[in-house]
Amino acid sequence: MNEYITTYTGIHIVPSNPSPEEICIDDIAHALSMLCRGNGHVKTFWSVGQHCIACAKEAAARNLPDRIVLACLLHDAGECYLSDVPRPVKKTLPTYSETEERLLSVIYEKYLGSDLTEEESHAVKEIDNALLWYDLEKLLGEFRSGKSPEIHIDLSYEVQPFIDVEEEYLDLFYRYSGVEKP
Question: Domain 5-177 belongs to what architecture?
């Protein structure tokens, strides 16, 4: 059995030991557009890619630096190689969490030039948690106690074609990364 996975673009990557050369934004955009949030336990399909796009748009709406907007877009990028594991399960899988953190660090270093600072990581996590609040409410009908977090975007949970999500993800990536679109 191989130790690597073959990505959408045909790259072989060992997710537990990634190199920057194996990371490809096209693979990330494609796979995240096809991965369902919540391990599929939702009322309607909502992709990890759509969630990441919403996080990036929320960061932009808060007038945060481009680096944070891009970090929000990429914050679940490791899931394109590992899959989306719900938080309660992730807490019980320390090896998975370590692998995911290492993979995300490589992704951030490749596309942001360095890993996130503690302050940047906090900003990304705050937006991720705010949008998770609405994901749980709209996708599962789970209402949390307390005041709902303020968001600055119109959040639509309308099902979108995979290709549209993939293209929007890539458009945002190129807009905020400074990388020229091929």
Answer: Orthogonal Bundle (1.10)
